[in-house]
Write a structure and sequence with these properties.
heterodimer, A: Glutaredoxin, 4-stranded mixed β-sheet, 11% strand, B: alpha/beta, Glutaredoxin, Ubiquitin-like (UB roll), 25 helices, 21 strands
Chain lengths: 159, 622
Amino acid sequence: MVKEVICKDRLAQLETVMDEHKGKKGCLMPILHESQKIFGCIPLGVQKVIADATGIPMAEIYGVVTFYSHFSIEPKGDFVIGVCMGTACYVKNAGKILDDFVKQANVKVGETSEDGKFTLEATRCIGACGLAPVITINEDVYGRLKADAQEVADILAKY
Amino acid sequence: MKSLQELENLKLQSQKLVNLRLGDRQNSPHKHHVLICQGTGCVSAKATVIEEAFHEHLAKHNLTEDVVVARTGCFGICEAGPVVIVYPEGAFYSHVTPEDAERITKNHLVEGNVVTDLLLEGSSVGDKIIPINEIPFYKKQKRVSLALCGLINPENILEYIAFDGYKALAKAVLEMSPKAIIDEIKESGIRGRGGGGFSTGRKWEFTMNTQADQKYIVCNGDEGDPGAFMDRSILEGDPHAIIEAMAIAGYAVGANQGYVYVRAEYPIATNRLQIAIDQAKDFGLLGKNIFESDFNFDLEIRLGAGAFVCGEETALLNSIEGQRGMPNPRPPYPAVEGLWGKPTVINNVETFSNIPQIILNGAKWFSDMGTEGSNGTKVFALGGKIKNTGLIEVPMGITLREVIFDVGGGIPNGKKFKAVQTGGPSGGCLTEEHLDTPIDFDNLTRLGAMMGSGGMIVMDEDNCMVDIAKFFLEFTVDESCGKCAPCRVGTKKMLNILNRITSGTSEMAELDRLEELAKNIKISSLCGLGQTAPNPVLSTLKNFREEYEAHVKDNKCPSGVCKDLLNYFILDTCIGCTLCTRHCPVNAITGEKKEVHHIDTKTCIKCNVCVEKCKFNAIEVR
């Protein structure tokens, strides 16, 4: 499924953001953060626009975008499933939960399902260790999971 | 804000906002304060919905004038979340649901009867409420960094000022010389809480003594250690303390600009910090001519973007500059040549959070706490197989046993303590025999672990130590920035060996090779990430060598974790219900109805479905 990522509206938003940051020292990171929010990813087309506006070489921008895991070049699915793999969750069976999502949502870790519905990520510690093991789906948080297959099925059924 | 007097006046006015929480009923315009923990853990468990529910029920009972509902930072006991404390009684409600708001409002706030069945276990005897600092979880704690977390509303600067907020900044700017401040910090003996443990005062001194037209103060809030969340909680619960401390640092070393680098994964912390910065600017506590002196200081937030290596100071500075977050060789140290080549003080969030109180109470007050060489307190994040998961602050020198069993409440489900991992991916595993060692920087390093940022993950008999070492190494392999070969290639090679060990294709000689490789990576890597990455492997090799040997020699995982070494067997207690046969995806289970079944271990893919389906616990994994 191909999604329309770059469109006029979004480019106009990017323009506003760049006007605000351009010329400031170290402006690239804040601009990339905003781009990730606006477009849901930072594809080459967007990087080119940023390069033209800021004068930072595109190779450098590409280098920065691919270095940080928070930035992505490909768009993500409608629902981003984040299975926390922080230590506190890991020792409480988060690995098994991740496996269950791979099987049941039919998507590999770090990838998006073919219908564009789910993206599955093994995330770094989200700091909700008191709720371990914990997963997030977009803004929703599910904590103190029991790590059985039925529970994962019940969660997925809501989306 | 023009003078100390003006700040003192504001403090006097603001105290009525918080008096009730200190037990002073006379000087409070309200009958009750309802404090709702809104740290990330409790927010994830619907704390914001609970807040709305309270507002709704208070309106119903016409109590909106008499009762204050305040959102606070983390109380520390995340396991009991969502947590709500009602003052002046100090009733500590745990595991609160939005529905409970109605009962608490009606029974407690209207009728004056504490809802005893919702109180935290151990926080009351019969109907009598125990003061919070005598609850077992808090009894051995000493809260300095976390003193105001859970006591004030971090989104209201007046509540911070009511507890002497910004008084240290006033004292520093109006009454102290930069050198006097640095001497005070040096004398307190405070060491960096981010992992390195370097003397904070000396760091500041280097920057003060370096001549430059521009200097910077940077706060390292890129808390990447999995299982550590103290920096986030401080930023969420007491952001003004960080702002105040950075301004003091700015005055001491001669910097007029600061940056707080926060993980992008911490939206609540970022948001509260921004609110706090804006308020501080409105009150003239940031900006130009602070307290009518010629001292100017401004602060900006910079977001990380998901790279663990950015917790290393030179990598972090490169990231602020808008580059890939890769470390530089040191020297030159940032104190001399840092952000954009200018002298830069870079300290961790928890370190900064101690500074205002050192200035207010004096160096001696601080150095009286803790042990020789490790003064003060340390915040630890307790996680894993421990009853009271959460955030604690204890004096340095407390033993692991006190932390895990007295404060942490021990291991749940009657399991046996096996190890505690301190310092995250850079740290090591400690065992039963180390439980009575006093915790401080030097002791932990000596034992092959590390203070790190203070993550403490407890493991029980069900955790395989080889698997844990592999887990951390996967993390560092993934997070290695790739700049130097020992870290980039070496950690990958170590991981390959561990993969062979956990899949039963290794040999004994490889254990020695693993150890040798680990030691070489430690001495030859460019930055802290590579230099400490082998620690989890080295410490488990030292303390749990027999587990490694069981994997290699006997092809067995004693804890039953490493999948490739496990086999599934059906016990005689099988009644032949055929449920497992029907669910096995590869038809590896055979057997007649009402007879004991059998698993063909060669066909079995170890998916665990049969174990989950069996209602008679008749399948054993060994």
